[in-house]
Design a protein that fits this description.
It is a single chain. The chain folds into two domains: 33 residues; 90 residues, 2-Layer Sandwich (Protein Inhibitor Of Neuronal Nitric Oxide Synthase). It is extended. The chain is 51% helix and 20% strand. α2 runs antiparallel to α3. It has 127 residues and is of the alpha+beta class.
Amino acid sequence: MEAAEELERRSKFLNSLIQKKKAKEQQEQNDQLNVRVRASDMPLPLQNKAFKCARDQLDSMPGKLDSKRLALALKKEFDSSYGPAWHCIVGTSFGSYVTHSLGGFLYFSIDKVYILLFKTAVEPLDH
């Protein structure tokens, strides 16, 4: 029994090291894109896609921020990749209170722009 406990302890320790390394790599990537996560209920691969899409759109905008264009680009990207009913709000100052599907919420800032991306459930209307 003692050997099994030692194996479990070592396994937990190695797992914690792996998680710390992944978290550090994620933070380094976020720093490169100048991203700061404010709140999230979204898997990391989807978050990374949102960050990259937002960064690419912002970099392609000459001069002034076009928040509608950025919101539309993120919405279209997520609708086409992950199914319908994604919503996106972009701006430098806004309030919100939304209901979202599980695993479909991300609020982050990139440069001085704040982005709220979330998914809602699509249910057929009963008539």
